Design the sequence.
């Protein structure tokens, strides 16, 4: 058997967006470890907690969801989930939570170690499950928990009552954090952070909107990686700079006809749901091999925190994707589909995420009808590899491709 | 009526909620469905409407599968199924709180699956304390009131709410006394005990209180039956007759419960002074020790142990509703606390599609042997 000849990897260009974004994500972990070593307090933070708070106060952060995704992508999802299950956690519980609770016990996982927390910052705008997860972390690690409750909004607009409720908690969260960390809130610094966050968000929105061109200048799976910076670091100037580089690269790709989707783009789809991190390569290859580019996802919209005041920021956090009603959630996706020439919707029915998947069948039916596109779903999980079937995924993607092809007149497959 | 006749009366209501609803509708009353886990029933009652609990049913699922993936709990799925099948026809509205992720999804799906019965959301705060929390709870109540007025034409009046609060406090007190009596009267079986709690969801509270008082009076005059092995139950639901028969068959006496559909409903009273809407918001703030209510100090597992000990329970049965993640997050802590206190724990996974209880029987048999 001939020995496989591996092509030498080209070292990443330090001025590229990919390099800059990877460095920001990696540095966040290192910065937290360094802060801990200096005796500073470290916070574990849920993904849609307002980053403006820890960033303004200069508190080092770790994002357990990002850590869990990294652990799952590097192949340790099942091992960590099973660890939590031996402690009595049901395998029905969110796999990110199981991995995080296992890490809280082991305090070690070579696939992604992090600094241990002195305080927990939880926000419920992503799901109610997050509250239970952080309650348990707080008890297991014996560290204080600051829980910012941003309820699911059944209405189309954010009410005055909700804004007042969230604002009151925001101020209390700052007060408690000052007490716990000894660091101070500064309005001046907050203005800077707010400006950085909005600048980063605007660049992100503009970059992801470049998918409106055919072919798209990027492979949608890129967004899943870059998203980590949007979650954790959007308040930093280097994040804004990196996102602006990303936008520039995509603009150049459009001008030169290039794309990071390195094959012919035959079909353009929207991918719905969190990535199957343990099966990222499989899910990506299953699309690419058929010339299917995932040109957009709700993440393109999810982190577009563009606001111009404190109150505007409060309202922005009340409108994140998992905190909005079916109609608002549907309309955002319909817009993304229409703006980006989407021809099919591939839905990840994510075993870990009840809220995201619990009204997805009805919402995706409505999106399909509004955009006249086929909708296909597959079963998977964001971090537990046991809940995914490669054969089912392949069959479903094949089915979606065939429908899209027949609508094009059948010449492509 | 003797005790047996009184128990039969509760059983008739608990086992036929549709019949009960029909009776109210035929009498010209308007019925409003109230979904788990906590809905401000007092508001519905105060507006002259009949609140009727909607906690689903043991049944196969068909239509609901078009809306929910399989990993959403069967309580939510069967509520939607009942709605789609027309079992709730005639109801003026359904109030669904936002206390867990699956409940949020139930509300969104309901709008399309059962469009004839208006969905009224009750958005509760999880940071429910202080001016910030109670202010938001009050706003949620005001929204429910406005929606109820729109859906039914009924009008809200604070004085009426003050009266309803008294009715609900009296019912709470009666249910707590009943729970104490049931801890002594081992002759009342687990399924009969369940009927007493379940029927409360399908009757006006003043009517239910009167029945409970009658039963309490009858029990006072009776010598309690021979003692059995006392256990405590905890979970969201524990109302499956097939499961409860196993308790009776094995001589297990439910002497206390921390079940959401049972005693958790009746722990907290509402102040009868001051502005009644504010008082109701304060009542919600005072509630706790429940998997769907933010519990920063994780008090629930300790209270389970304390309650079990106080009632002389020899062990704890966790009736875990499959796919209920709020409960699943609490289970490891409940197990640990119980084990530290020397209380054996049996974990029985249940759902509303369960037809074969042999595994549960084997598990509870072993548990009984351990307790003996």
Sequence:
């Amino acid at each position: 058997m001939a020995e496989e000849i591996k092509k030498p990897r080209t070292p990443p260009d330090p001025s590229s967006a990919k390099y800059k974004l990877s460095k920001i994500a990696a540095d966040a972990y290192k910065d937290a470890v360094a802060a801990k070593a200096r005796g500073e307090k470290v916070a574990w933070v849920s993904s849609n907690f307002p980053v403006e708070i820890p960033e303004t106060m200069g508190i080092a952060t770790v994002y357990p969801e990002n850590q869990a995704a990294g652990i799952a992508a590097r192949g340790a999802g099942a091992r960590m989930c099973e660890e939590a299950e031996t402690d009595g956690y049901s395998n029905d519980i969110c796999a990110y939570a199981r991995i995080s609770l296992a890490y809280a016990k082991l305090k070690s996982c070579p696939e992604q170690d992090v600094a241990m927390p002195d305080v927990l910052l939880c926000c419920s705008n992503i799901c109610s499950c997050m509250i239970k997860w952080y309650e348990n972390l707080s008890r297991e690690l014996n560290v204080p928990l600051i829980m910012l409750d941003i309820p699911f909004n059944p209405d189309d607009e954010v009410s005055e009552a909700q804004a007042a409720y969230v604002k009151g908690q925001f101020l209390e969260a700052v007060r408690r954090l000052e007490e716990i960390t000894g660091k101070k809130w500064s309005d001046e610094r907050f203005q800077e952070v707010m400006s950085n966050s909005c600048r980063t968000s605007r660049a992100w929105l503009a970059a992801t909107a470049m998918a409106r061109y055919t072919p798209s200048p990027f492979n949608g799976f890129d967004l899943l990686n870059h998203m980590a910076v949007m979650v954790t670091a959007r308040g930093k100037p280097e994040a804004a700079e990196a996102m602006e580089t990303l936008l520039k690269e995509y603009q150049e790709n459009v001008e030169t006809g290039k794309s990071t989707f390195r094959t012919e783009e035959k079909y353009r789809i929207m991918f719905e749901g969190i990535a199957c991190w343990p099966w990222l390569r499989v899910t990506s290859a299953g699309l690419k091999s058929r010339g299917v580019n995932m040109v957009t996802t709700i993440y393109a919209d999810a982190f577009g925190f563009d606001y111009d005041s404190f109150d505007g920021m409060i309202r922005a956090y009340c409108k994140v994707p998992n905190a909005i009603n079916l109609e608002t959630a549907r309309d955002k996706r319909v817009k993304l589909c229409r703006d980006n020439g989407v021809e099919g919707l591939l839905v990840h029915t994510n075993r870990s995420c009840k809220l995201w998947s619990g009204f997805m069948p009805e919402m995706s039916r409505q999106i399909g009808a509004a955009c006249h596109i086929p909708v296909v779903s597959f079963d998977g999980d964001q971090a537990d590899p046991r809940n995914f079937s490669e054969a089912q995924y392949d069959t479903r993607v094949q089915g979606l491709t065939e429908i899209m092809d027949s609508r094009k007149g059948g010449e492509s497959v | 009526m003797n005790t047996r006749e009184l128990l039969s009366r509760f059983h008739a209501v608990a086992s036929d909620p549709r019949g009960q609803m029909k009776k109210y509708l035929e009498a010209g009353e308007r019925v409003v469905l109230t979904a788990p886990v906590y809905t401000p029933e007092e508001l519905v009652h105060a507006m002259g409407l009949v609140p009727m609990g909607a906690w689903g049913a043991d049944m196969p699922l068909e239509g609901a599968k078009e809306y929910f993936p399989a990993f959403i709990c069967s309580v939510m799925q069967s509520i939607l199924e009942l709605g789609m099948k027309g079992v709730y026809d005639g109801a003026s509205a359904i109030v669904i709180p936002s206390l867990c992720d699956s409940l949020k999804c139930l509300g969104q799906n309901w709008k399309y699956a059962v469009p004839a019965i208006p969905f009224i959301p009750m958005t509760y705060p999880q940071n429910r304390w202080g001016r910030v929390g109670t202010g938001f709870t009050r706003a949620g109540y005001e929204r429910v009131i406005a929606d109820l007025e729109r859906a039914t034409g009924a009008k809200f009046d604070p004085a009426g709410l003050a009266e309803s609060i008294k009715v609900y406090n009296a019912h709470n007190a009666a249910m707590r006394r009943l729970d104490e009596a049931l801890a002594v009267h081992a002759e009342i079986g687990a399924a009969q005990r369940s009927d007493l709690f379940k029927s409360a969801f399908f009757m006006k509270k003043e009517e239910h209180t009167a029945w409970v008082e009658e039963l309490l009076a009858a029990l006072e005059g009776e010598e309690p039956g021979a003692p059995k092995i006392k256990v405590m139950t905890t979970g969201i639901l524990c109302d499956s007759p097939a499961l409860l028969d196993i308790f009776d068959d094995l001589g297990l006496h439910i002497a206390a419960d921390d079940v959401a559909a049972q005693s958790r409903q009746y722990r907290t009273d509402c102040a009868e002074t001051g502005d009644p809407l504010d008082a109701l918001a304060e009542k919600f703030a005072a509630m706790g020790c429940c998997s769907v209510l933010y519990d920063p100090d994780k008090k629930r597992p300790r209270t389970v142990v304390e309650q079990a000990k106080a009632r002389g329970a020899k062990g704890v049965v966790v009736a875990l509703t499959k796919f209920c993640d709020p409960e699943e997050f609490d289970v490891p802590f409940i197990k640990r606390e119980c084990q530290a206190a020397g209380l054996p724990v049996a974990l029985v996974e249940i759902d509303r599609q369960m037809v074969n209880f042999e595994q549960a029987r084997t598990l509870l048999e072993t548990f009984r042997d351990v307790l003996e």
Remarks:
- Chain B has a mean pLDDT of 97.
- The two ends of chain B are 36 Å apart (CA to CA).
- Chain B touches chain A through 51 residues (CB under 8 Å).
- The first helix of chain B runs from residue 3 to 14.
